[in-house]
Amino acid sequence: MTARDRRAVGRAGEALAERYLVARGYRILARNVHLRHAELDLVALRGGALVFVEVRLRRGDRFGTAAESVDPRKQRRIAAAAAELLARGELPRAARLRFDVIAIDASREPPELTHFCDAFQVE
Known about the structure:
This protein is α+β, with helices and mostly antiparallel strands. 30% of the residues lie in helices and 33% in strands.
């Protein structure tokens, strides 16, 4: 699979995750925000929480599941990127911050989506 194909698959996964979130009352504030530390896939607002969503898509579990791929190193990078975006002052104030992971198993038809709310904490 070429890099272009991987990007297209990734965009399709992010679009699926976005539709899922919007259907559940999330308001999407930003998509694919490129920052110094990492890219934030989706930033949403729901019920007083500002939610940073990492979308992971896998076509099998040979190298671990999609959720397992959000390891502590990746979590720290996402948190640093979120802090950088918050420092810009472009996002609304929220009562709390939350980090979610949406894992998509694309080996199934239709793809199976699992939403991990508050998937990790940042110290």
